[in-house]
Amino acid sequence: MSIEKTRPPHGGHGEQGITVLLRRMHDAVAQEASAQERLDHLTKAIASHVVADVCSIYLRRPDDELELYSTEGLNREAVHKTRLKWGEGLTGLVAESHRPLFTDDAPHHPAFAFRPETGEEYLHSFLGVPLIRSGKALGVLVIQNKAARQYNDHEVEAAQAVAMLLAEIAASGELLSQEETAVFGEMLHRPERLEGFPIVSGIASGKAVFLQPPAPKHKVFAADVAGEAARLEDGLNDLRASVDAMLAENASLSGVSREVLETYRLFAYDRGWKERLRAAVFSGLTAESAVEQVMNENRARMLQAKDSYLRERLHDLDDLAHRLLRLLSGEASNGHRALFDETILVARQMGPAELLEYDRDALKGLVLGEVSATSHVAIVARALKIPMVTGLGDAIDRCEEGDLVIVDGDAGEIHIRPALDVVETYRAKRELQSARQAAFAKERDLAPITKDGVAISIMMNAGLALDMAHLKETGTEGVGLFRTELQFLIGSQLPSVSSQEALYTEVLDLADDKPVIFRTADIGGDKTASYMDQGKEVNPAMGWRGLRMALDRPGMIRLQLRALLAAAANRTLHLMFPMVTLAEEMDDARALLDREIERAKRQGNALPKDIQIGAMIETPAAAWRVEEIADKVDFLSVGGNDLAQFYFAADRDSERVQRRFDPMNPGFLSFLRECAAKARQSNVPLSYCGEQASDLVMAAALVGIGIVQFSMPATAVGPFRRMTRSLNVGHLSAWLDDRLPQAQASLRPELSTFLSENGVIVD
Ligand code: PEP
Ligand code: MG
Predict the structure, then answer these.
(1) By alpha-carbon position, which residue is closest to atom 10 of ligand 1?
(2) In principle, which of 94, 174, 695, 750 could form an S-S bond with 128, CB 3.0–4.6 Å?
(3) What positions carry a catalytic annotation?
């Protein structure tokens, strides 16, 4: 059936214009003609649609020059003759900047480069948009008019939609000759190095897998429009059926998870969405391209939305569109991602629970969008020793699944499709690292005593039974923070008392009489369990989490205390409560524990021979009045990740704000120093278990302000021990006493110099 005989549906939302253009583009590409002729028809279709005097397509050559491939309006002799260097002229600037550029006075624009053969001197207005694919500019679409006029937002948006399709077509082989297509293929697969931020150290290499599966490969334009419309209809029906089935299967679900599924259903049945998809198909696109086209339009709109709720929904819509794409390609809509033997997982965002679902043997490295060093996904990655680099939201656009990727978690960079010499360099670097690890392993029995005789206690952080192997490897004194919530995050339902007890017993057995400080489940914030009805909070990190949730809804913590008491029967139980804000909360926590002890006694169960109770100091309120809390506990532990977050009012999950506030800020260090001094006066031991102890200069500063007990990720222990053994605390404390009151900016640069001048090993 030809398109002309088929009545196109309405696009809705004013998209009719672009629909007509897409149809014309489809006709141009479908013609029986040479590649050049088809390209020229395409250019003509765009020119007449946007009412431009000139429409030109420049494509990128392997030497990075931009060549005029087709034009409607410029001198025809210029085609394949006019070339611009990368960054040269307005067109080169568009390619280089990856951004649209428009002006109503092109000849006077500072970047204007005159090419006499084109005859463009009489053209005043210029609109150029890049042809982007896989994060690379493959060319530029240029629209020009004689009259001096401003292009409006709609025109720029329409040009971008067309440019996106042009890039698809150029890479798909539907328009250009085989050789030309191969040139683009080669350009898209060049090695790339991307710079981000180091989060978990180490080097990993493997094949890329996306958390969100990529759209299966497909054609852009369809020959049989009616057939394509039928495929779309079937795909949508399958999608709706799969969402309905998901809701039926999870009928008992409540809270956030149910809300997410309900939103999916709303979107899946949305008539506006369906109409826009149909309009795109009737304009000649394949069902897959129509889904992508509408998905990109939605993205552009929602990213501009001021309302954060709307922006969040973007994720749902994207997910739904991806499900539809997979259904159209015949894949299951929600299959688990298969990993390669050595996999690098690439994602824009990811939560700690998602990470725990992956096979740890296969998962070698992580590349994420915006995530900070103290976020929980980073903490879990560090516990699992998975090198991780962040700040690379565009990595997904720049690599394809199966591409070789090297993650350098020390330098904070990744290499996509690295050349052989880069692979070789990293192999050597990895060997060096193994040698360094071996050297640390040899030092594990050396006591962490400073040069001036101050004994430092080093424990490690853990959260999984498999972490316990690191106790021996690192030679640490015990587990200073066992994050029990990880078990709660992994499963699809609340872990039973017996499974909790089994884990705690296993952990205590593996600890072999070394102390393990169990921190009761700190759920909330970014650690949400899918089965829990937590309600929606605007600021979950400051919301209903940790001890607050436990005291309001004691059902869960009582079961956990029951499991802990049973697991520690006849041994010492170290129990610590998270997110304590006021001293009185410790009374309530203790009352809950007493109830469980009474219950165990009534039932004749064996009890721990000793119970040590601790409070985490991770709110400024708790740190400021730490002596009141100290009165009620046996030990204290500073959760520096949260404490810094609340001190600076800077979300620990946001890399952007984390970079702004160095914990080595003199204010924060003085605050910690005072807190440590008050704990000392109260005769209650205080340790530091935040991730900042992995940062050696910061760790030295913490020792310098009087903290002598630490609990840190296993990976940080070797370098930390070496640092303490090379340090003279007396000298450093005196230096800090002098500098802290005066310094106004981060102490990092001057302290780094001081440490290196005094022979302290901080690398
Ligand atoms: C902290 O806040 O520093 C801490 C150790 O707890 P978590 O990172 O689990 O919130
Ligand atoms: Mg915390």
Answers:
(1) 642
(2) 94
(3) 376, 689
